[in-house]
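[Q] Does anyone have a clean structure-token version of this?
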Amino acid sequence: MRIGTIASTLLCPLIMSLAGVWLPECCQASRIKDLVHIQGVRENQLIGYGLIVGLKGTGDKGGGKFTINSLANMLRKLGVSVDPAELKVKNVAAVIVTATLPPFARRGERIDVTISSLGDASSLQGGTLLLTPLKGADDQVYAVAQGPLSVGGFAAEGGAAGVQKNHPTVARIPQGALIEREVPFSLNPQSPLIMTLDRADFVTAARIAKKINDTLNMDLAHAQDPRSISLTIPSQFQKNLVELVATIQEIEVEPDTQARVVINERTGTVVVGENVRISSVAISHGNLSIEIKETQQVSQPPPLSPGETQKVPQTDITIHEERGNLIPLPANTTVGELVRALNAIGVSPRDLIAILQSIRAAGALHAELEII
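[A] Here you go.
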């Protein structure tokens, strides 16, 4: 049995993995392109219901009535009248087809699609997706998908055993959907351009607006709130809005980050932001090891006595206690000082989690502690 008593805190600029590796601080500016997106320029999700044919006995096995009815309806539209009760669908599978329509997509372009089994099919390997309309949230058809599937796995089974790799009931068709309808959207040079931050922050929004104004040498950008930045289109860019957006997106800004410590107890990972600060604390680390051994001895009575031979347990207890280490750290300890202190006392990855939780509870860790 091992008992650890720890009281400490942690400060780190970017990432500290629980393998005991610390990466030095490196603050770099990011492009505005990587921090914001243009309001209205967005993707759209598409979905459709289709049939996979050509499977080698790995289809829906006839258990799904919707597969049988779908197959019968498709054949009827092709001029073949059949009784649904006579259909066998072990080579057919009902699937849901999903795709993402990118912004500014034009008619005639192709996009990737993902196919997921809807019934009890065991594998989609070797199948072909029949013509499937893909609709948006407005129930309008924006693309049609069809083609042979690419399955990143397989499944095989015999009478008593089977083998499977990855998920054979999910497949993709690269460039498998043809866009038939465009999403109406255009950048209006007469209206302000709204840029939305991916992560709302007052400081970052103010920095972006100031950097844009300094680069263009004009007072055009204004932070409306911690999420949105409004940009007035100057007259010289009224007919060339793309060049203006491209110029702005290449501007580099150093984003501000919130003091936060993220702990993943399942994988043993600790990520600490550079703005994390600590109060004056002392780090103590020590281990108590208790070893218990139990052996069986025989108790035998004297000859010709009425007693019986019995087993008598013998227990030996050994206690080893390591000398504890106490390292005081003043307020605003630097990252290098703290890392050296933690390495000096041999803090393990699991100890780091206990350290952070204990110091947070004591009020010495000035950061948001998030456990995922």
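[Q] Thanks! Anything notable?
[A] Residues 205 and 226 are 6 Å apart (CA to CA).
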